[in-house]
């Protein structure tokens, strides 16, 4: 079994701070307020764009062009923010709720990184990591 590999970003450009995400959230709220088309959209009316943007991300991955991938990921992120803004306006949930839920899920599904297992110093194989992930995912469904 191969050992887990180090982060692909090790030694690369500085990591993102996330400041732009907050700025874009504010921008999305403003666009929903001031743009009739954006204000008229619903989860249902945007569903096709979400699918299209997801497909375009996959195409960019296949191309292997990092700049194209970054552009398409931005378009997909727009869709995520759009849906979160709609939900926020309806009082259903906020982008903070989405991120908090995702953060909690990643911590649950990666006990080798965040749980007691992370304190052992043991390196887990890819197979073991996948097993931990599936076990955590199955436990969530109970």
TrEMBL record:
GO terms for biological process: dATP catabolic process; dGTP catabolic process; dTTP catabolic process; dUTP catabolic process; TTP catabolic process; UTP catabolic process. The keyword rRNA-binding does not apply. It comes from the Bacteria. Residues 41-114 form the NTP pyrophosphohydrolase MazG-like domain. The keyword Hydrolase applies. Pfam families: MazG. CDD domains: NTP-PPase_MazG_Nterm (cd11528). Transmembrane segments: none annotated. Keywords: Hydrolase. One of its GO terms (molecular function) is nucleoside triphosphate diphosphatase activity. This is XTP/dITP diphosphohydrolase. It comes from Nocardioides terrae.
């Amino acid at each position: 079994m191969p050992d887990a590999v180090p982060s692909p970003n090790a030694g690369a450009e500085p990591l993102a701070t996330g400041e732009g995400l907050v700025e874009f959230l504010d921008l999305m709220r403003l666009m929903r307020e001031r743009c009739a088309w954006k204000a008229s959209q619903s989860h249902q009316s945007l569903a096709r764009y979400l699918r299209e943007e997801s497909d375009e991300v996959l195409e960019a991955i296949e191309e292997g062009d990092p700049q194209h991938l970054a552009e398409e990921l931005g378009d997909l992120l727009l869709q995520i923010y759009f849906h979160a803004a709609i939900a926020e306006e309806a009082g259903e949930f906020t982008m903070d709720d989405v991120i908090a839920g995702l953060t909690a899920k990643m911590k649950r599904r990666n006990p080798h990184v965040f749980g007691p297992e992370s304190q052992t110093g043991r390196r887990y194989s890819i197979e073991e990591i996948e097993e931990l992930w599936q076990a955590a995912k199955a436990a969530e469904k109970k």
